[in-house]
Design brief:
With about 375 residues, the protein is α/β, with parallel strands linked by helices. It has 14 helices and 12 strands. α2 packs across α4, α3 crosses α14 and α8 packs across α12.
């Protein structure tokens, strides 16, 4: 981006939302609701993830907060939106929300980012080399959360804010992993639907896509031979195939010990019935670590992939399990994968130390109540 365009970038952002800014500033004359929370989520069509987990915790415990939810399908008119933004003491977002970055927050108001992802894997925000440093994006957060104290600096860099604004409370949506009733219901549903999985060791193969976007996503078929892998693992093992939604091509197999469950919405539910996760560059490694399964990182194109993508750390530092580059070595690595390995223990301590079923509770105490 040219220097002139770079300097003009914040002004262009404000111009886009000039009408909303004007109405927001006018609505700031109204009293602010001290216990008012506005949960704003326009990227997914409905409330989910960390925002939903926090909402459920507040409501379940009868805490004195008045929550208003705005998602893209129920977006109010601009006057109402500006009023809600201006009169809520807490504005909470969980993704990129360009309309909030142009706001000059009123005194005492909090803008809190409860970022949908966890850990620190692929670079985002200002950690990307291509990021426009003069942008207003993210920079007016009064607080943001992360899953472990060790990665607070990473999130501060990515959001362009000071590290003291990063609150290591864990990842609220992972509290569900510690809900015995939910886990058992998910297991019961899946075993009822796929009875062949019961009393078997289960490996889930969940690679991320290659390509640039939803339009051209694929997974190289030559990387994996599911039938050969099933034969090598033997009859005590079942393989669940869970492809990234962007992957357009199907992976061929004939074995009745391989089940394509790519259509299952929640990969976390599949992790509840799995023993070993095999993936490459997917952030599911963090959820898997919290749930407590072993992992194998299968990365036959490691050098090529890392040359085009930015990671926060060297790929070897994400080694929550053995790194394998050849499909001929994959079965043996799966068989010896250990959920209690020193690598996995170190990985959990570094990236998900506070994902213990109490993240929503800590969020309320440390972020909302500032205790």
């Amino acid at each position: 981006m040219s220097r002139i365009k770079s300097l003009a970038y914040p002004h262009l952002q404000k111009m886009r939302y000039a009408s909303l800014i004007k109405k927001y500033n006018s609505a700031k004359k109204m009293p602010m609701k001290e216990n008012g929370i506005l949960m704003l989520s326009t990227s997914k069509g409905k409330l989910g993830g960390n925002l939903l987990a926090i909402k459920n915790y507040i409501e379940k415990n009868g805490l004195n907060y008045n929550i208003r939810v705005i998602t893209s399908p129920d977006m109010p008119d601009e006057n109402e939106l500006a009023t809600q933004l201006a009169t809520s003491r807490f504005i909470m977002v969980d993704d990129f929300e360009p309309m909030v970055y142009v706001l000059d927050l009123r005194h005492g108001q909090k803008l809190i980012q409860v970022w949908h992802a966890m850990g620190a894997f692929k670079r985002f925000g200002y950690a990307r080399e291509t990021a426009e440093k003069n942008s207003l994006t993210h920079k007016n957060y009064t607080a943001a959360i992360c899953s472990s104290p060790e990665i607070a600096g990473v999130y501060a860099q990515s959001f362009g804010i000071s590290e003291d604004k990063i609150k290591a409370v864990g990842t609220p949506r992972t509290d569900l992993f510690f809900d015995g009733e939910y886990v058992e219901a998910a297991r019961k549903r899946l075993f009822s639907q796929y009875p062949q999985l019961e009393n078997k060791r289960v490996m889930i193969f969940a690679p991320t896509f290659r390509g640039d976007s939803v339009n051209d996503g694929f997974y190289p078929e030559e990387f994996i031979d599911l039938d050969a892998l099933s034969d090598e693992l033997g009859e005590e093992w079942m393989i669940i195939l869970k492809l990234h939604p962007f992957i357009k091509n199907k992976l061929a197999f004939k074995s009745d010990r391989v089940i394509d469950m790519s259509g299952e919405r929640e990969i976390n539910d599949l992790l509840f019935i799995s023993d070993v996760l095999v993936t490459d560059y997917s952030s599911v490694i963090f959820e898997n670590a919290v749930i407590g399964n072993a992992a194998v990182l299968y990365a036959p194109d490691l050098e090529e992939y890392t040359a085009g993508r930015g990671f926060y750390f060297d790929y070897g530092e994400y080694a929550c399990g053995e790194i394998v580059k050849s499909k001929d070595e994959l079965a043996s690595a799966i068989k010896r994968a250990d959920k209690n390995s020193p690598k996995m223990k170190a990985f959990k301590e570094r990236f998900v130390a506070l994902c213990d079923g109490k993240s929503s509770e800590r969020f309320v105490e440390k972020v909302l109540e500032e205790r």
